[in-house]
Amino acid sequence: MHFSTLTSATLLALASLATANPCLTYNDANTLATNFGKLISAYSNKLANQTLTPGFVDYSESVNSLIDNGGTGPTPLLGATFTSRAKFEAGSAPQPAVPFTVKNLWYNCNTITIRWESDQKPQPVVGISVAQTVYAPVTGNPSKFMIQSIWAEFDSAAWAVNLGVLVPAPKKEKKREVAFEG
Ligand SMILES: *[C@@H]1O[C@H](CO)[C@@H](O)[C@H](O)[C@H]1NC(C)=O
After folding, report:
1. d(Cα 58, Cα 131) in Å, to the nearest integer?
2. 21-162 has which fold?
3. Does the Cβ of 162 fall within 6 Å of ligand 1?
4. Is 125 buried (19+), middle (13-18) or exposed (0-12) by CB count in 10 A?
5. What distance in angstroms lies between residue 74's CA and the mean position of ligand 1's atoms?
6. Residue 123 near ligand 1, beta carbon < 6 Å
7. Could you state, in order of their start, the residue ranges of all structural domains in the chain?
8. Which is nearest to 143 in space by CA: 39, 30, 40, 55?
9. Measured from the CB, is residue 110 less than 6 Å from ligand 1?
10. Which residues, in sequence order, are CB contacts of 39 under 8 Å at separation 6+?
């Protein structure tokens, strides 16, 4: 009786262990961060398929602002930038490759935070991307995890200058004078 109770409890515990999704390890987080960077510096549909879930969603007012050339349309500034992997692929495939270096990487069980630098000319661009991941093992993929959503913001003013969309205002010659009264 005791034995069979213990056995059932053990089997239950093993069953719940087997179904619990594993957490990201450093290697998983590092592989996903590297491959996310490659989607910007050396894009391919194959890598996008291996790295992003089909339902991938991307939120970035910085990207929306660039798409809108600093205006408010056609992409609503506060809306999603891409609402599926297929849309991400359609938007990314024609883009020129830009340099991308991971500067910092933090992760927990299912989230990766990447601080990155894109050494563009004349102005460097720094940004932060937060990626939520899911355990989705597929034979042949570089990682057993995929990215299902990203929130990313970066220095889109510098990027717009690099694209020639924004012309910097002349440098201020004098410090702003502050008058104290009283
Ligand atoms: C990527 O996946 C889509 C289906 O989601 C498929 O049609 C396409 O052929 C795949 N591309 C590559 C290069 O693997």
Report:
1. 9
2. Nuclear Transport Factor 2; Chain: A, (3.10.450)
3. no
4. buried
5. 28
6. no
7. 21-162
8. 30
9. no
10. 47, 48, 51, 92
Mutation test residue for ligand 1: of 43, 45, 56, the one with most atoms within 8 Å of CB: 45
pLDDT of residue 1: 43
Within 10 Å of residue 75's Cβ, how many Cβ atoms? 17
Count CB neighbours of 67 within 10 A.
15
Tokens of 120: 């563009």
Name the H helices within 20-56.
26-41, 45-51
- Residues 182, 178: Cα–Cα separation, whole Å: 13
- pLDDT of the chain, 182 residues: tens digit per residue: 455 555 555 555 555 555 688 999 999 999 999 999 999 999 999 999 999 999 999 999 999 999 999 999 999 999 999 999 999 999 999 999 999 999 999 999 999 999 999 999 999 999 999 999 999 999 999 999 999 999 999 999 999 999 999 999 998 877 667 777 66
**What pLDDT, on the 0 to 100 scale, is given for residue 98?**
94
